[in-house]
Specification:
Helices cover about 70% and strands about 0% of the residues. The chain is mainly alpha-helical and about 180 residues long. It has a domain of about 120 residues.
């Protein structure tokens, strides 16, 4: 393998690792109702979104439960990504002295990218499931407001690779 190809591969590995951190941070920072630190006492009263949607106490409790579970699963995905990165980094640092080892490094990098994409897809599914579960506990007026909030906070796409937020076909907000 040529030095330029090795350099390009190292840059790619760095970009993937950096991207993993950014994606994990974006996901966690954009999850509603989850501003408390793990282990901190639960927030009392309603969240601004609960107030905006005029949720009943039961709806607010259900929504909090949905998003706490989604946050826990997202944190698991972030931890998995960090473990993948460490394993990959440890593996390629220990090689890279012969052409055969450089070839091994390329395979490790490709395997990592596949695993990373899988974890990211899983995280996106958890987020989409939580959005759908939230919709199910809302009345039609609340759903409309909720979808406006989702769009304003996340834009037209969910965190991750080109995954559109799946809004209902009858969505009145689409035309804005």
């Amino acid at each position: 393998m040529k030095p330029n190809k090795t350099r390009a591969t190292l840059v790619l590995a760095f970009v993937i690792a950096l991207g993993a951190g950014v994606v994990g941070g974006v996901l966690l920072s954009r999850m509603p109702f989850l501003s408390t630190v793990s282990g901190a006492p639960p927030v009392t009263g309603q969240s601004p979104l609960s107030e905006m949607l005029q949720l009943t106490p039961d709806q607010s409790d259900k929504m909090r439960s949905i998003w706490e579970e989604a946050r826990a699963k997202a944190q698991t995905a972030v931890n998995e990504v960090q473990q993948l990165q460490k394993g990959r980094d440890d593996a390629f640092v220990s090689i890279l002295t012969t052409d055969e080892q450089k070839s091994q490094y390329e395979k490790i990098t490709k395997d990592y990218a596949v695993k990373f994409d899988s974890v990211t897809a899983g995280r996106d599914r958890v987020f989409q499931d939580a959005v759908e579960q939230t919709r199910q506990i809302l009345n039609s007026e609340q759903q409309k407001k909720y979808e406006e909030v989702i769009r304003s906070r996340l834009g037209p796409k969910m965190p991750g690779k080109d995954s559109p937020i799946l809004l209902p076909e009858h969505d009145p907000v689409k035309h804005h």
